[in-house]
Amino acid sequence: MLTNWAPSVYSRLSLCEGRQHDPETTVSISQDFRIHDFDRRVCRICAELWLIDVKEINRLQHIAVDKSRLHIPILFGFDVIHGYRTVFPVPLGMASSWDPSVEEQAQRLAGQDARAAGIQWTFTPMVDIARDARWGRIVEGAGEDPYLGAAMAMAQVRGFQGATLGPDSVLACVKHYAGYGAAEGGRDYDSSYIPEELFRNVYLPPFHAAAMQGAGSFMSAYMDLNDVPASGNQWLLTDILRGDLGFKGFVVSDAFAVASLVTHGYAADPSDAAYKAVTAGLDMDMASGTYTNNLPKLVADGKVSQAQLDAAVLPILAIKYQLGLFDHPFTDESKVESTLSRPEGLALERKLAARSMVLLRNENKTLPLSKSLKKVAVIGPLADSKSDIEGGWTVEGLFGSGSKSHPVTVLAGIKSALGADAQVTYVVGPDPSKVYLGLLDQLSGKKVLPAPTAAETADWLAKVKAAAADADVVVAVMGETSGMSSESASRAGMELPGMQQQMLEETAQSGKPVVLVLENGRPLDIHWAAEHVPAILESWFPGTEGGNAVADILFGDVNPGGKLPVSWPRTAGQEPLYYNHNLTHEPEDRPSFASRYWDIKSTPLYPFGYGLSYASFKFDNLKLSKANMKTDEATEVSVDVTNTGAVAGDAVGQLYIHQRSGSASRPVRELKGFKRIALKPGETQTLKFTLGQHQLQFWSPQTKVWAVEPSTFDVWAGDDSAAKLHSEFSVAQ
Ligand code: NOJ
User: Fold this and answer.
1) Closest C-alpha to ligand 1, atom 4
2) Poorest-confidence range of 8-17, 87-96, 192-201, 629-638?
3) Atom 9 (ligand 1): residue with closest C-alpha?
4) pLDDT digits (tens, 9 = 90+) for 105-128
5) Mutation to probe ligand 1, out of 10, 11, 175, 222 (largest number of atoms < 8 A from CB)
6) 277 and 375 part of one domain
7) Is the pTM of this model over 0.85?
8) 323 and 374, same domain (yes or no)
9) Residue 97 resides in a domain
10) How far is the CA of 130 from the centre of ligand 1 (A)?
11) Is there a domain that residue 150 lies in?
């Protein structure tokens, strides 16, 4: 079994919690929120986290509802990130669908499952913009773009909460507010330094969109934002969130973020940390116990007023009412298993997983493969790894007694697509995470897990060579183990870990068609493969039915239509890399100074928005309803998309703008509209987009307001951020 680091992170968390085991008096792991009664009884628990044993959930709920003074039910929260029993693609994968309904459908099913299993609150969606793929948590978000990120954030909130919060909803928690994805050097938890204009124009919009969609809770981030920790930052938690964004729900800290105010050197001691957090606008301390231990005295001493505490508690109580907890606090234990194992969940997962995959390369129409292939060699450590195909943050895998799902690996998916007559040879190779575990252990001085020896390496390569020589087609399934892109799991290099690169190069020597299927939570350094491997399919961590979904694409039952939600670097040294950067004095499309590096081009290997199909598409007839308009007007943009290929397929029409002049330099391109459509061969559809105040305004560092400014604007439409079809319009005061 390959290494998944997440469980060890979590056993660490549980240890730190100081969970108390007297069932009648336990305060358990969550913060205690009571303002009227500070004794240590469960009646005062606001919320209980990281518990999925439904019997235990009901038992605790009975104590709260039947025996407590105020009979206030507990809100049970858990990280239901991309599915409960049925695990959907990781969020970066779902964002690659460029279809918000994928996120909405997945999270609706996940929410129904969670609610049936006694969970009413999920710590999802993560809407952090990630411009640096070294950052391990890029896997949990929608990538680098605020417009795409906002659409995906709203879809997830709709999926969990429905149109409004009600007895069937799961409360969404939008995280990590805010700027967490800008960690310096891509090192998780590191400080973020974000100028206000960048913060408002790029990092804030997905949070704003989620608040507009009615998200009931936000989670404050761990890190320092411009030297003021997010969890004690009044500007962030009150001025922006309650003021500018009009947020009416409650804010919970990330797990130990309140205690960490001391670690950051921002608070003098835990009492000061509680004071700074609660007065900044942080309503709930998730797990550090700092509120529990210090608020009583702060209130008694008059440093925190009763009104301040009421302001923190009331939105939580209101949400418990909205969720129907006062009327129906208990979970029907008889329905849990039948709900979690609904077969429609698996069918949906397979469909959404295939919709989330991105075809990066397909030379000489290597794909789709024929189903009558007789001999296939499958190579690589991820090809049959059940513990990796679902990605990290799986509910039952994390805190349950182990995953109860039955994930379909890529090897299993290929075998089932080809049937028993085909010969499928498998060469696993060594666990790619060993090389890192070795390094970590070197640092900590503990016993190391050795990387393969020279003799083992030679042996694996000989096996690869023999399997490839005997096959009609080679499918290499490579990438990262699921724990390599996760919390506290950043990478300085982005190469294929372990000896996967050597194994891949060995397959290419065979002269057989090679298909590389990637399983990973971030873009990887595949510059060699991008030249030498004819077909590359990005499957991310595709979930429970992932192997079947990969096979659906490999054998042409599904035509891939996903697009990259991130700019794909040539190598890690380019990070941070994002398409919506400003123009320099020597733009890269000029002949001189075209690249800033000696050794590689400055441009990405694959641009943001990129992805191939078995069909081909033509974009033309780009028209604007107005070529000149006023700042309070809008222009309608239309563009024709035609399927010029021989098979039906999905195109994603993308609209980008650039403001040529104004009170600040504006990005070279910004996404302002997108739509995924299905087209039959020869079919044309006209896509329409609006460019008005919402799309054209920005927050200027000079005027310090959101406004549409007079300027000429460029417009491009096409199927990625390098689209060439161009028009322009002017905006006057
Ligand atoms: C810490 C993580 O940063 C956050 O994303 C998660 O929701 C909480 N722990 C709770 O598990």
Assistant:
1) 254
2) 8-17
3) 255
4) 999 999 999 999 999 999 999 999
5) 175
6) no
7) yes
8) no
9) yes
10) 17
11) yes
Please tell me the distance between residue 255's alpha carbon and the centre of ligand 1 in angstroms. 6
* 31 CA distance to ligand 1 middle (Å): 15
- Point out the domain boundary residue: 561, 576, 602: 561
CA nearest ligand 1 atom 3, residue: 254
Give the pLDDT confidence of 316-371 residue by residue, as tens digits. Answer: 999 999 999 999 999 999 999 999 998 999 999 999 999 999 999 999 999 999 99
> Residue 47's pLDDT band (boundaries 50, 70, 90)?
confident
Pocket mutation for ligand 1, best pick of 8, 9, 76, 123 (most atoms within 8 Å of C-beta): 123
Distance 178 CA to ligand 1 centre (A): 14
Give the residue whose CA is nearest to atom 2 of ligand 1. 254
What's the total number of domains in the chain? Answer: 3
| Arithmetic mean of pLDDT over the chain | 91
CATH value at residue 555: 3.40.50.1700
From the list 99, 132, 188, 254, the catalytic residue is 254
Q: What is the CATH classification number for the domain harbouring 667?
A: 2.60.40.10
Atom of ligand 1 nearest to the CA of 287: 10
Do 232 and 155 fall within a single domain?
yes
What is the 8-class DSSP label of residue 186? Answer: G
Give me 726's structure tokens.
């161009």
* Together in a domain, 519 and 400: yes
Ligand 1 atom 10 nearest Cα: 255
In CATH, what number is assigned to the domain containing residue 124?
A: 3.20.20.300
β-bridge mates for residue 670, sequence order: 657
Asked, for residue 90, whether it belongs to a domain, the answer is yes
* Rounded distance from Cα 121 to ligand 1 centre (Å): 13
Ligand 1 centroid vs 254 CA: distance in angstroms? 6
Task: Enumerate residues 6+ apart whose C-beta is below 8 A from 335.
Answer: 116
* Residues 184 and 216 grouped into a single domain: yes
pLDDT of residue 437: 56
Q: Which atom of ligand 1 is nearest to the CA of 123?
A: 7
Q: Token pair 């030679």 is at which residue?
A: 458
Query: Contact, 717 vs 619, CB < 8 A?
Result: yes
pLDDT in tens, 663-689: 999 999 999 999 999 999 999 999 999
By residue range, what is the domain housing residue 518?
357-561
The CA distance from 209 to 221, in Å, is 18
CA 51 / ligand 1 centre spacing (Å): 14
Q: What is the best residue among 487, 488, 490 to mutate for testing ligand 1's pocket, by most ligand atoms within 8 Å of CB?
A: 487
Residue range 558-566: mean pLDDT, rounded: 98
Are 324 and 436 members of one domain?
Answer: no
Given pLDDT bands bounded at 50, 70 and 90, which one contains residue 13?
A: very low
Distance between CA atoms of residues 286 and 13, nearest Å: 12
For a mutational test of ligand 1's pocket, the pick from 12, 254, 393, i.e. the residue with the most ligand atoms closer than 8 A to its C-beta, is 254
Same-domain status, 199 and 117:
yes
Ligand 1 atom nearest residue 126's Cα: 5
The number of C-alpha atoms within 13 Å of 103 and in the hemisphere containing its C-beta is 31
* Ligand 1 atom showing the smallest separation from residue 175 Cα: 5
| Residue nearest to ligand 1 atom 11, measured at CA | 79
Q: 605, 133 in Cβ contact below 8 A?
A: no
- Which residues have C-beta atoms less than 6 Å from ligand 1? 79, 123, 175, 254-255, 487
Q: Mind listing the pLDDT tens digit for each residue in 498-523?
A: 899 999 999 999 999 999 999 999 99
254 given a catalytic annotation: yes
Q: What are the beta bridge partners of residue 228?
A: 225
pLDDT, tens only, 225-253: 999 999 999 999 999 999 999 999 999 99
Is residue 232 within 8 A of residue 261, CB to CB? The reply is: yes
User: Which residue, 530, 546, 561, sits at the end of a domain?
Assistant: 561
Encoded amino acid at 575, one letter: E
55 found inside a domain: no
Same domain assignment for residues 442 and 534? yes
Mark 381-411 as b/e (b = at least 16 C-beta within 10 Å): bbbbbbbbbbbbbbbbbbbeeebebebbbbb
DSSP 654-697: EEEEEE-SSSS--BS-EEEEEEEEEE-TT-EEEEEEEESHHHH-
